[in-house]
Amino acid sequence: MRAQGNPYGLHRVMEPLGELPQAAQRLDASLPLYADEILIRVELVNVDSTSFRQLREISQNDPDLLKKRILEIVRERGKLHNPITDSGGMLVGTVAEVGPGYGGPLTLKAGDRVATLVSLTLTPLHLEEIRGIDLKTGQMEARGHGILFETGIACRMPKDLPERIALAVLDICGAPALVMRHVRNGDRVLFVGAGKSAKLSAVALKGEWESGVKVECLDVDAQALHDMREMGLADETHAGDATKPGGLEFLQKGRGYDVVVNVTNVPGTEMASIMAVREGGTVIFFGMGTSFSKVALGAEGIAKDATFLIGSGYVRGHAELALDLVRESRALREWFERKYSV
Amino acid sequence: MRAQGNPYGLHRVMEPLGELPQAAQRLDASLPLYADEILIRVELVNVDSTSFRQLREISQNDPDLLKKRILEIVRERGKLHNPITDSGGMLVGTVAEVGPGYGGPLTLKAGDRVATLVSLTLTPLHLEEIRGIDLKTGQMEARGHGILFETGIACRMPKDLPERIALAVLDICGAPALVMRHVRNGDRVLFVGAGKSAKLSAVALKGEWESGVKVECLDVDAQALHDMREMGLADETHAGDATKPGGLEFLQKGRGYDVVVNVTNVPGTEMASIMAVREGGTVIFFGMGTSFSKVALGAEGIAKDATFLIGSGYVRGHAELALDLVRESRALREWFERKYSV
Questions:
Q1: What is the CB neighbour count within 10 angstroms for residue B61?
Q2: Which of A48, A140, B88, B238 has a CA-to-CA distance to B209 between 20 and 30 Å?
């Protein structure tokens, strides 16, 4: 056991020194543990959707190339931090050890199965091997270890949900919580992207206000839109390419949406989201491909005065809220079962 | 005169087709004008601070190299869009022509002197020459033309303020307006960066609430901090490097700030801003070097539940508010006169 570290993990940063782990080029993921850390034996890794999409593209959907590239990143950086998309993912594993000097908020003990709720871009990670990789979902079976600092968080894996479903839900559990914080009864809400974040968030909205909230959805994927309607989660859907807002006629009509929720993993959808929101409304960006300057300058460029939020992955109570949504909505649970069955 | 264009400027996009002007690689800045456009003869250009800093670095402070690089960007892209920082600037000039089909909100006529309030990253621009360039401020005298679309905005140059001061103020006029929208009486506010945006915003805060609002400021530049105190704009200042938050002890004490305003042109200051804000507080990011993913994942990484805003350059009434601050605060006006005198 090594000495006491730093609550933010500064002691694990190798390059450049003085940076925080997320900004660092390289972390030290070696053992033994520092006294204030938690050691987790890794079993399952969920690669962030934007990162996985990019890695799949450069590997031309070849699972072996993909595994090789992911192992390379982790070996070089001491963390799963995609240098192109600047995003990571999360992991599931078993607590191997809680350092005797640990003073953080978690009440974990050795043997607990947990999911980490901090990004893998700042989690010291060592992978010995990747066994299986699911090209549809970005989930992979892996063996190795990860380390949590005192400021990091994790949650116990629920016993009543299949593990892959719980992991898929926890991966984006910030979305429904933040959406619920910013939507009011009577609002018109547009989701840009009809994936799992949109579905979870729409279940939360409809569960709270039913038809009081009008939900619409934009996606290129007709099946995803069909699912949203079938599941009773969208009052209206729009098939179209959010990266080409010039071609989206519905955006140029009407008074605009009260809240726009950007949940795509495709870069270049900022302007569609900005054009869609009404004056004084709110856009929440969750897609890790979002460009800060495209939003700031794009909004200025069309003189749209609205609130533009960076959707952080952490909102108090987010994990419980998201898991409860899957527990309580049969349609949602069935959708996750279809998509995340092994 | 060409035919009617598109309010968002789609008709000027050459590559890739279908993109909006800000996202485009290349715009057509050629004449004649389309019927719904406004033509401006360019006289002064204010390069965005983050972009100018990067251009000055690669030109090693050589004015001729700097001019050459800026002319190259404008020639290649048909707009002043720095490909590295993804930011632009704004311009001052004289309205040469308002197309007969123009149906936008501006009431300009030929001969009006105006500043454009939309970014140069989406403004078709042709430059014949750059005459002078001020290495301190990023302002340059230039000759050429720029084009405004119907969704673009501009304001008449005030007659009671020196032109270079008005341009410097209008460049960042979104900051005080957005800060005033999010700060409440009684708040503790931290500015990360002590440049002109911090000064303008602090004048607005102190003008409204005096000692009701506690203003603090973090910067590496002792002179900038000294000026903030001397001008009565900061109750407390902290000398330190916001790119190395691990070394900033004052951030790790106390309950955190209600509102943190990031107004630096230095990349890598996201974590300091996130660590500084209290749970439930608000961070407004204005620096064009801000990384979306560093904010989203950094906040998640230390489980900080707060509101993270992308500071858009447009807030209704922003130009008038900012110019009035300089008119009404003698200390601020004198500071601008010292800094922007020719």
A1: 9
A2: B238
Q: Which 42-71 residues of chain A touch chain B by CB within 8 A?
A: none
Q: Indicate yes or no: CB of B308 within 8 angstroms of CB of A310.
A: yes
pTM: 0.90
Helix (H) or strand (E) holding A114: strand A113-116
Using the Cβ of B25 and the Cβ atoms of chain A, whether some distance falls under 8 Å is answered with no
**What is the model's pLDDT at position A49?**
87
Non-local (6+) Cβ contacts of A247 within 8 A are A240, A241, B18
Structure tokens that stand for A119 in this block:
């990004």
| Distance between CA atoms of residues A113 and B186, nearest Å | 44
Chain B nearest C-alpha distance from A18 (Å): 6
From residue B77, alpha-carbon distances to A54, B15, B17, B127, B241 in Å are 27, 9, 14, 12, 35
Dihedral, A169, A174, A178, A183 alpha carbons, nearest 10 = -20
Rounded distance, CA B50 to CA B120, Å?
Answer: 13
Beta-carbon separation of A300 and B291 below 8 A? no
User: 3-state SS of chain A: helix, strand, coil percent to 5?
Assistant: 35, 25, 40
Query: Mutating which of A297, A305, A308 best tests the B interface, going by the most B Cβ atoms within 10 A?
Result: A297
The tokens for B11 are 């008709």
Residue numbers in B near A105 (CB within 8 A): 303
Write the burial class of residue A168 (CB in 10 Å: 0-12 exposed, 13-18 middle, 19+ buried): buried
Q: Taking 80 as the threshold, does the pLDDT of residue A291 lie above it?
A: yes
CB contact under 8 A, B244 and A18: yes
CB-based burial, A194-220: b 16+ in 10 Å, e otherwise: bbbbbbbbbbbbbeebeeebbbbbbbb
Place of tokens 């899957």: A326
The pLDDT of residue A342 = 58
- CA separation (Å) from A234 to A182, A227, A242, B74? 18, 9, 17, 44
* Gyration radius of chain A over CA positions: 20
Q: Are A300 and B117 in contact (CB under 8 A)?
A: yes
Q: CB distance A122–B301 less than 8 Å?
A: yes
Give the mean pLDDT of A148-161: 94
How far CA A4 is from CA of A27, A126, B61, B275, in Å, comes to: 17, 21, 45, 21
Question: Whole-angstrom Cα distance, residue B286 to residue B45?
Answer: 20
Segment A300-318 shows an average pLDDT of 92
CA A75/CA A71 separation, integer angstroms: 6
Give A26: exposed, middle or buried? Use CB within 10 Å, 0-12, 13-18, 19+. middle
ipTM: 0.89
Residues of chain B with Cβ-Cβ distance to A310 below 8 Å are 285, 292, 295-296, 299, 308-310
Q: Alpha carbon of B70 to those of A19, B10, B142: distances in Å?
A: 32, 24, 11
Buried/exposed code over B142-152 (b: 16+ C-beta within 10 A; e: otherwise)? bebbbbbbbbb
User: CA-to-CA distance for B69 and B1, rounded, in angstroms?
Assistant: 32
Chosen from A293, A308, A314, A320 to mutate, greatest number of chain B CBs within 10 A? A293
- Give a three-class secondary structure readout of B157-186: CCCCCCHHHHHHHHHCCHHHHHHHHHCCCC
Task: Write down the H helix ranges in chain A.
Answer: 49-58, 63-77, 163-171, 174-182, 196-209, 222-230, 270-276, 292-301, 318-328, 330-340
Q: What average pLDDT score do residues B130-153 get?
A: 94
In this complex, which of B23, B305, B316 lies closest to A294 when CB atoms are compared? B23
Please state the rounded mean pLDDT for residues A82-91: 92
Q: Which residues contact A127 (CB under 8 A, 6 or more apart)?
A: A42, A45, A70, A71, A74, A75, A142, A143, A144
